[in-house]
Specification:
With 403 residues, the protein is α/β, with parallel strands linked by helices. It contains 14 helices and 21 strands. It has two domains: 175 residues, Rossmann fold (3-Layer(aba) Sandwich); 209 residues, CoaB-like (Rossmann fold). Helix 1 packs parallel to helix 2 and helix 1 crosses helix 8. Bound molecules: ligand PMT. The site of ligand PMT has 27 residues, from helix 9, helix 12 and strand 16.
Length: 403
């Protein structure tokens, strides 16, 4: 079999649980994202999903048997382990977690894991009582201490019909952890850093059916929060209303208005080392909220009186202390000049400037073209890239500034 060296190899371990059915979605997303996905199933996993399913989704032969005659002679668990840039175990049973934590290697998956030198993401799925079991928790703690990254579990409906903490996280959320763990390889660690991030729009109510808002989807801020968490930071994300799910390994506080966002950020600011303001805060709100729908015919709508919202970033910057302050700016004209103004006026250490024009529509998009301003106004222009990649570039700069 010839190797495609342009595709990074990911080992995907699948162990025996009903969540194995959902892990097919992860295999498919990893494949579509350009990874060479090598699935290793435990014999129990094959009772829930067939090897053929994963083979069809990844285009690669699925390995289950340690002693199967290989196509070319090699010690397969060692050769796979050597090639892998990352491994993800999805779902991970209590049995797998116990074996990995205690150095037990008695099948193809555990022997391969034992031979790995790359990051491993673990997505547990089990009954809530099993997850809460002291032995399981001790094993989880041990694996975390060894550098394994956990993606979930989450609270939700379990296979046994009850609700509890033990459900496998959604494949998209696990994908984000895998992708950010992959992008974090070879980059500076943010272990010990407490990062506060704002994201999304704020929504300012006018009456029960109308509001003032903007087109921010939250994607930039959520990507930045996930990227920082994958690099070991303790992340708090204060988010305006978005359609996005809470990222894993991040503490999320949901708010609606600018005033609520200010309050939530003030609460988190005291204990943070750096604040990154990706939120598109509405500059104005209705002076008075009407608890009845304002009639179109009445003067109320035409003469809606607005008041200015607090400038959150400027307010927090005035209490900066030793913290690093990063702002964002989105402008349709004179982007750099206008961002430079905000950079010095708000006392920032860095500002990330999005141009909004025919070439770049950052609101709601998956990718973005930005310039980063630091120091005495040095401008670094970056090419178009995904918001995930951009997040790591921004974190690289933050890490340099904090050093
Ligand atoms: O959410 P996405 O769809 O992924 O889109 C991402 C984004 C385009 C929203 C994001 O990359 C971005 O540029 N956010 C800032 C948008 C903006 O227009 O900012 P501004 O120029 O209004 O404000 C500058 C800075 O001050 C920002 O960091 C903002 O968070 C902050 N600010 C602004 C007004 C206000 N009242 N309080 C603030 O804290």
């Amino acid at each position: 079999m010839t190797e495609d060296l342009s595709k990074p190899t990911i080992i995907m371990g699948v162990t025996g649980g009903i969540a194995a059915a959902k892990s097919t979605l992860l295999a498919s997303r990893l494949n579509k994202a350009g990874f060479d996905v090598r699935v290793i199933m435990t014999p129990n996993a094959t009772k829930f999903v067939s090897e053929l399913t994963f083979r069809s989704l990844t285009g690669n032969k699925v390995v289950t048997d340690m002693f199967e005659e290989p196509e070319e002679w090699d010690i397969r668990h060692v050769s796979l382990a050597k090639k892998a840039r990352l491994a993800v175990i999805c779902p991970a049973t209590a049995n797998f977690i116990g074996k990995a934590a205690n150095g037990i290697a008695d099948d193809m998956l555990t022997t391969t894991i034992m031979a790995l030198g790359c990051p491993v993401v673990v997505a547990p799925a089990m009954n809530d009582a099993m997850w809460a079991n002291d032995a399981v928790q001790a094993n989880v703690l041990k694996l975390k201490g060894l550098g394994y990254v956990f993606a979930g579990p989450v609270t939700g409906r379990l296979a046994c019909g009850t609700e509890g903490l033990g459900r496998m996280a959604e494949p998209d959320a696990i994908f984000d952890v895998v992708m950010h763990s992959y992008l974090a390889i070879g980059r500076s660690s943010l272990k010990g850093v407490k990062l506060l991030v704002s994201a999304g729009p704020t929504v300012e109510p006018i009456d029960p059916v109308r509001y003032i808002a903007n087109r921010s989807s939250g994607k930039m801020g959520y990507a930045l929060a996930s990227a920082a968490a994958a690099r070991g930071a303790e992340v708090t994300l204060v988010s305006g209303p978005t359609a996005l799910s809470d990222p894993l390994n991040v503490e999320v506080k949901r708010v609606d208005t600018a005033e609520q966002m200010l309050k939530a950020l003030e609460d988190g600011f005291e204990g943070c080392d750096a604040f990154v303001a990706t939120a598109a805060v509405a500059d104005y709100r209705a002076k008075e909220y009407s608890d009845r729908k304002i009639k179109k015919e009445k003067a109320g709508m035409k003469e809606l009186e607005l008041v200015e919202n607090p400038d959150i970033l400027a307010k927090l910057s005035s209490m900066k202390g030793g913290r690093l302050m990063v702002g964002f700016a989105a402008e349709t004209e004179d982007a750099i000049e206008s961002a430079l103004g905000k950079y010095s006026k708000k006392g920032l250490d860095m500002i990330v400037v999005n141009e909004v024009n025919e070439r770049n529509q950052p609101f709601g998009a998956e990718d973005n073209i930005v310039s980063i301003i630091t120091g005495k106004g040095e401008v670094e222009s970056l090419p178009r890239m995904s918001k995930s990649e951009l997040s790591h570039m921004i974190l690289d700069r933050i890490s340099e500034l904090m050093a």
